Amino acid sequence: MVAGAVTILGSSAAVRGAVLYQDNASASGQVMNVANNAQFGQQIWLGTLVPEYLTNFSFEYYSPYTTYSGSVQMDVRLYENNGTAVNGYASPGTLFYDSGNFTLTDPWSVSGTNSATVVFQLSDLLSGNTVNLNPSFVLPTNFTFTVSVSGMQGADQVGLPIFGAPSVGANSADYWYYVGGNWELLTNSTYSVSFGAQFLGTPTPEPSVICLGAMGAAALTIMVRRRQRRG
Question: Where are the domains of the chain?
Answer without folding.
Answer: 7-229
